[in-house]
Amino acid sequence: MPRPIPRLFLNLYRFYSTPATSASTKPTSAQKWVPEKLELDGKTYISEEKYWNISPNLIKLTERRLLFDEANPLNLLKRRIVNHMHKKHRKPGNRSPIFAVCEDQRRIVSVFENFDSLLTPLDHVSRRTSDTYYVNREYCLRAHTSAHQHSLIKQGFDNFLVVGDVYRRDEIDRNHFPCFHQMEGVRLYSADELFGTPQPGKDFKLFETNGERTKEKQEFHAFDAAKVLELKLKETLEDLCRELFGEKAQMRWVDAYFPFTHPSFELEVFFGEKWLEVLGCGVIEQKLLESAGAGSKVGWAFGLGLERLAMVLYGIPDIRLFWSTDTGFLHQFQGKQPGDSIQYVPISVHPQLYMDISFWLPENHDSTHMKSDAYDLIRNIGGDLVEQVEIIDEFYNPKTNLTSHCYRIIYRSNERVLTKEEVNVVHGKITEEFIRLYNVKIR
Ligand code: PHE
């Protein structure tokens, strides 16, 4: 029996494992907002209408840089993990830390960096314009910090942590937001580094020729090398988890799949009465290392979602709170140290208000794209007042050849009580925009 896949914030399942249906990259609307170019992180990219799917609201998110804000819990958590890795992993002689920290990589990356370099299959669902934000056919907003693995290894980094904001088109609810934050770790080893200085009679090798690819190892790796790598990887991450969740933390390893690691695993921690998925990791595909010019070494990588961890560790109930500028939220983290234990005290006790919107899509309009576009549009107009969006009904009428969608929008403010009248105005604007942009017929 396959185990049920939890919906998770890091969203590994959707990103890597959803079976590809008819992959489509066609644009969905004639009148979408397409600026001529986008300038981000000191570089200018010329947009291409056919691929562009970035909304003004998303651009605003790129400007916040939450990880650099010391009063943000994500910043505290980042520093806590970095401090731990620096303390525990040091060069021989103990003078300096092993892992370089990279937190200013450009957030727009090439399709090669985001997908090809990581051996993502060409027809993989994560490449679609309904899943990833594109500027043009060649460039997109990074969908994970793994997008920097290949180029950093190529530049000669053997051991590094990459931290940053990443972007995925997704639904909006208390656990999902189009921008979130990840930390990536990569460690490469030569034979000596992996096995220790060679001793007479003990000749351990990294590679074997004509080897077989099994559940446990890649075809190029010697069995011992693969096992030691896996051991070191798991040891490193269990140690990190104990730092975050306490010495007595209960953990378990689950097999996983990522295109660029094998074997691959997920680590789960028992917290608050349930098993919580904390990170994804694995032994880096040798093909990746070879193409990055590090084929003589072997290595592992891990990636973890910072929001997911911070929500659990600090008791933050809603992912949108990380973006709050409310001093009621921020003052709870201001001036704190990474090692402090902090429990967030909720500030919003305001009631929710919900309204539905249902419509017929124009004939032949792609239903999956409409969903992604709908989440963006609603968020764009409703801004922070939109707490959740859910598609609650979807059906196809073969007689008219039309598809109907119904979305439930839950409005709630963290700051104040919303009146029905004021929500009506926002909801009306959203409705108008659906008609204007997508030519839908309200039901
Ligand atoms: N990039 C993966 C994700 O976003 C996580 C990961 C990183 C998995 C490194 C394995 C190794 O979901």
Automatic annotation (TrEMBL):
InterPro entries assigned to the protein according to its UniProt record, in alphabetical order: aa-tRNA-synth_II (IPR006195), aa-tRNA-synth_II/BPL/LPL (IPR045864), Fdx_antiC-bd (IPR005121), Fdx_antiC-bd_sf (IPR036690), Phenylalanyl-tRNA_Synthase (IPR002319)
Reaction catalyzed: tRNA(Phe) + L-phenylalanine + ATP = L-phenylalanyl-tRNA(Phe) + AMP + diphosphate + H(+)
PROSITE patterns tied to this protein: AA_TRNA_LIGASE_II, FDX_ACB
Domain of life: Eukaryota
Subcellular location: Mitochondrion matrix
Residue span(s) of domain FDX-ACB: 348-443
UniProt-recorded Gene Ontology molecular function terms: ATP binding; phenylalanine-tRNA ligase activity; tRNA binding
Primary residence: mitochondrion
CDD domains according to UniProt: PheRS_alpha_core
GO biological process per UniProt: phenylalanyl-tRNA aminoacylation
Record keywords: Acetylation, Aminoacyl-tRNA synthetase, ATP-binding, Ligase, Mitochondrion, Nucleotide-binding, Protein biosynthesis, Transit peptide
Quaternary assembly: Monomer.
Function: Is responsible for the charging of tRNA(Phe) with phenylalanine in mitochondrial translation. To a lesser extent, also catalyzes direct attachment of m-Tyr (an oxidized version of Phe) to tRNA(Phe), thereby opening the way for delivery of the misacylated tRNA to the ribosome and incorporation of ROS-damaged amino acid into proteins.
Similarity-based family: Belongs to the class-II aminoacyl-tRNA synthetase family.
The protein, known as: Phenylalanine--tRNA ligase, mitochondrial
